[in-house]
């Protein structure tokens, strides 16, 4: 029986789309997006895009009929297996070997250790049971290997702690309960040993049952950001708790909680963790918290100190193009409509994409100060007939004066 795969993170990317509006080629005179060379890949949505050294790999994705924005569509067909490497400096593509198993795109479905790209694709089969494939691509050898996947206790995301791949659970919440209820027992986060092709449970973190969990890898371990899983969510502000895992000692250290509402947007930028998400919330009329709490902040994991983001201009939520997913490097984080140079504490608006249609389902990567978009689907004004794309664009983030 053929398996029908549904990649949760990839579906989320398809739903979110690439931008809220389409407009001209440049904004306020800043250099805009430039088209990349023609790719050897066929049109598709939500491929996996991952940076390895100075090149960007585009792998898999879906070539099924595109789903209109905000529509409820049937599950896409089995993801694709082919891919290609893009060199931003040369504006050139090179086909790569096909993966042995389908590759679905989405945030945190891949982890890079040196030249090795580890890919975890999970989905539901025709009988309703979930299964996963775990495989690795050696970029230096242009070769794939099939590996042992983690257990199937739930959806897992990937990160890299030191030189170890870690598969972690995004939430401890039971999906079968009418009210927020923790799984019992709590599923362990797992670390992978490439030498033996085995998984080992990490020590239990000190935060307890939580949701909106994000594990951000660091050279010496990882930092966990999460919110308490309680029976009456929203009565108290769901601020982010934090803990640091030291890979050498195998021990957790609880860090101070931050006055910030979501751990989802945090990325490593140099020695700090940054979420550049826009906006804030006050709990509304029913459970008003008496203050606005932001969605973005900065955490120094070495000291446990939290700090606010620098001010940025106000904008209408529907004003301008938004990158689909957050990406970062050693200096910059690109999030939504903004890029933040962290050392300079300077914001840059992401320019409009020079297309006339609504575009969704693109994938994004960041390499050498260049933001890369590829694929997706384009929709006209009536959103009735989508066309899969094999187009790519790059934008060089300006260096602050």
UniProtKB/TrEMBL annotation:
Keywords of this entry: Kelch repeat, Repeat, Signal
Protein known as: Galactose oxidase
Taxonomic source organism: Jiangella anatolica
Signal peptide as annotated in the record: 1-22
PANTHER family associated with the record: KELCH-LIKE PROTEIN 32, LD33804P
